[in-house]
Each structure stands twice: as structure tokens, then as C-alpha cells.
Design a protein that fits this description.
Layout lengths: L1 H13 L2 E5 L20 H8 L7 H4 L2 H12 L1 H12 L8 H9 L3 E4 L5 H5 L4 E7 L9 E7 L3 E4 L11 E4 L2 E2 L5 E2 L3 H12 L6 H6 L4 E5 L6 H10 L8 E4 L5 H10 L1 E4 L3 H5 L10
Parallel strand pairs: 1-2, 1-9, 2-6, 3-6, 9-10, 10-11
Antiparallel strand pairs: 3-4, 4-5, 7-8
Helix pairs in contact: 2-4, 4-5, 4-8, 8-10
Length: 283
């Protein structure tokens, strides 16, 4: 185990490994004023969406399903408002894993979470932000922003950004610099369909990502939504394609990882980062 983790650390240091981050990297994030944990997991997001109350068992299965139900009953604006109330709040602490990753100055990170924590840690350096969008008239399913080390500005064309700049890719949305969300089933169907068709990733990144390896961290791989996103994001990866950090993986996860070329490592991302499980997030 230690040898494998050391290999991953060395690969990250080389700049050839792309972290693919899920909800568990936010496990230590809490609100500075109230002490409440940031909603990140599927169940936590459903409760936050529904005023703290659980929904019917069939809706509790996965957040996109619950969000679709709310959208059908109360409108898309209700889902958008809930996401903004959670993630546009400035009172959240920093995630220890985010601080570790920001310190590595990686060239490319994919973050499935909708918070802006990692963006804030990148706010002192130039980078490119790519944010997933859905159900819009444009054929593309992303928006580009360039950050010059002081602030974001929208980039309409790929020619407006530095192709060599570090990339933060937020497929499911962020409140900053403008709120955009992939949340409901309808959002995901549209986004993943266009992702599979090649319209959700900028062309320059399609070239830049060839031959890279990936590190799946902070997410289980037993839900179809995450599995479909991952399968398309790691297209044209090196073989083997990298690693998936999954404590106590099940057979379904092992088979999926074997199929796409990921080595399952039974460890938590905090073990890789040398972070105590109980280490508090920075205020």
C-alpha cells in the first residue's frame, strides 16, 4: 500500500496525473458561523434541497432524481436558488484536500463538486476555468473563463485563453464567477449526451489530455451518473489509466475500474495526502 501511494504522489508531482474529485473531499468543510457541514454527498444535497426533510425512498436514491422532482413541482428556479443558497455563501471553511492539491500546482484538475473552494485557493494564480452547462441553445456544453491572477473574465473563444494555463474543470457547476448548475436528471441527460458527442470539452483540452493518467478520489463508482462522466473524461488516457482510491470497494466498482484501466487502491485520499482524518478545515 505505501509503495502504491508513493507511486501516485510521484506521478502527481510529474504533472501527468489528473485528480477526479468527488464529494468526500469536502467531508471536513463546515460553516464558520453555524458549524454545519457543507452538503456534498447525494443524501446531504437532497436534505438541503428539501428543507432538511428526507424525500420518498425512490427519490432518495440519487440527488439528480430528487432535483428533477423538485424542478417538475416547483420549477427549475427552485433548484437554482437552493444551489446558490448553499454554494454562494462565503462562510465555508477550506477543505484540507483542496489545500493539499492547490499546493501541488497541478496542470489539470476535474472537480465534480459545486463549491468554489478550490477556485479560491487558485485565485492568486492565472488559470482557466471550464464550467459545465446544460439545456442551453448553444451547441457547446461548457463555458470558459480566464483568470489573470486577480479575477475571472469570460472567454467566448478558445483563442482567448492560454492553452498552457492550469485548468480547473467544474462539470457540475459553481457559483463563481456566475452561477451555473448541472443538478437534475434532465441536466445530466443533456450534459452527458453532449459530453459523449464531444461538445462538452474544449477542443484544445481534447488534445492536451491525450496520454494522461487519472486519480479518482473522494467518490464511489457504484452510480451510473459518476461512471458515465468518468468514462468520457478519461477518454484517450494512458493505459493503464491511473488509480481509483476506494476504501472497501465492492465487486461492481472493481469490475468497472478494471474495464476502464484504473487500479483500485483501498485507501482514502487523506492517506495519500498525509492528512489526519480528523484534521479540521481551515477557517
Amino acid at each position: 500500500m505505501d509503495t502504491c501511494l508513493a507511486e501516485i504522489r510521484a506521478a502527481l508531482a510529474s504533472g501527468t496525473v489528473v485528480p477526479f474529485l468527488g464529494a468526500d473531499v469536502l467531508a471536513d468543510v463546515s460553516h464558520r458561523d453555524t458549524g454545519r457541514k457543507m452538503p456534498a454527498t447525494s443524501d446531504e444535497l437532497i436534505l438541503a434541497l428539501n428543507n432538511g426533510q428526507p424525500m420518498a425512498p425512490r427519490l432518495m436514491y440519487e440527488f439528480p432524481r430528487a432535483a428533477m422532482n423538485v424542478e417538475l413541482k416547483r420549477g427549475r428556479s427552485a433548484v437554482n436558488r437552493a444551489m446558490e443558497q448553499i454554494y454562494a455563501n462565503d462562510g465555508w471553511s477550506e477543505a484540507a484536500v483542496h489545500r493539499w492539491l492547490a499546493g501541488l500546482e497541478l496542470p489539470y484538475v476535474i472537480d465534480l463538486n459545486r463549491d468554489s473552494g478550490l477556485q479560491k485557493l487558485y485565485a492568486n494564480r492565472p488559470h482557466t476555468l471550464i464550467v459545465g452547462t446544460a439545456r442551453i441553445a448553444s451547441g457547446l456544453r461548457y463555458k470558459l473563463y480566464r483568470h489573470d491572477g486577480t479575477g475571472y473574465s469570460a472567454a467566448v473563444e478558445e483563442s482567448e485563453i492560454d492553452p498552457a494555463a492550469p485548468i480547473l474543470f467544474k462539470p457540475c457547476g459553481t457559483p463563481w464567477p456566475e452561477p451555473q448548475w448541472i443538478a437534475s436528471d434532465a441536466d445530466y441527460v443533456d450534459y452527458i449526451t453532449e459530453l459523449m458527442g464531444g461538445f462538452a470539452i474544449p477542443n484544445y483540452l481534447k488534445e492536451r489530455r491525450k496520454g494522461l493518467k487519472y486519480l479518482v478520489a473522494g467518490t464511489r463508482l457504484n452510480r451510473d451518473t459518476v461512471r458515465m462522466l468518468l468514462s468520457d473524461f478519461i477518454y484517450s488516457a494512458a493505459q493503464p489509466a491511473g488509480w481509483a482510491l476506494i476504501p472497501e470497494p465492492n465487486d461492481k466498482e472493481r469490475r468497472f475500474c478494471a474495464r476502464i484501466g484504473l487500479t483500485v487502491v483501498e485507501a482514502d485520499v487523506r492517506e495519500l495526502a498525509g492528512i489526519s482524518i480528523n484534521e479540521p478545515a481551515a477557517a
